[in-house]
Design goal:
alpha/beta; Rossmann fold; 8 helices; 7-stranded parallel β-sheet; 230 residues
Length: 230
């Protein structure tokens, strides 16, 4: 049975990705930062309990990340899908505090770095796949999103470096770049007329499945826009 580690699993996108891989008969280690979120995810995906392992893990901490791997007993892994991330935006560069810059780099870049640093030895044993989720603003900078855009651009660079460094081990790494994802949180501020232009979590999950399965075996180092109709 193939195994996937999926971060940000309690979010709308992470949950959709977990469900797609569980439907595909994979074993899934679903990482959530908070205990209450982990509990809710376990309940929502209870029908897959036999192959689902929900784990509380703070990926910004190397200690927490390593503790997860040690406790899991995993000796190999077939896919690592990094859905964790977040955004703080709304101010021009001169009004953006260093604290926000650090926060964006931590949640969007450092979490991915820590997860890959810990799991690449496992991926190398199986020739596995890495998938990360960036953002359109990393490729096309947008007003008042400097720190967020920079952190997601760093994530793209990390993904491509992973692909380049691990060719000899048959580890491939790709990055999906959505615009606005159709999630309950985004619907709270989005205009109803724009919802049809957004990208659904399920469509991203389907792309993740393809990229991490045999169908995507020849794809590595790719930055794949999934911007819907935006």
């Amino acid at each position: 049975m193939k195994t996937a580690i999926i971060s940000g699993a309690s979010g709308a996108l992470g949950k959709a990705v977990c469900e797609r891989f569980l439907e595909g008969e994979w074993r899934v280690y679903a990482l959530a930062k908070r205990a209450e979120s982990a509990k809710a995810l376990s309940a929502d995906l209870a029908k897959y309990a036999r192959r689902l392992n929900v784990v509380v893990c703070d990926l910004a901490s190397t200690v927490s990340t390593q503790h997860f791997l040690t406790a899991s007993g995993l000796e190999q892994c077939d896919a690592v899908i990094h859905c964790a991330g977040g955004i703080q935006a709304g101010k021009p560069i001169e009004e953006t505090s260093p604290e926000i810059v650090h926060a964006m780099l931590e949640i969007n870049y450092l979490t991915a770095f820590n997860l890959l640093r810990a799991t690449l030895p496992l991926l190398k044993t199986s020739g596995g796949a890495v998938l990360t989720i960036a953002a359109k603003s990393a490729l096309s900078p947008e007003k008042n999103k400097s720190a967020y855009a920079a952190s997601k651009a760093a994530l793209i660079a990390l993904t491509q470096a992973t692909a380049h460094e691990n060719k000899a081990f048959n580890v491939r790494a790709n990055c999906i770049v959505p615009s606005i994802i159709d999630t309950p949180t985004n619907r709270e501020w989005g205009a109803p007329k724009d919802l049809s232009k957004w990208t659904s979590p399920q469509s991203i999950a389907e792309a993740a499945w393809m990229l991490c399965s045999e169908a995507g075996a020849g794809i590595s180092g790719a930055v794949i826009p999934m911007t819907g109709k935006m």
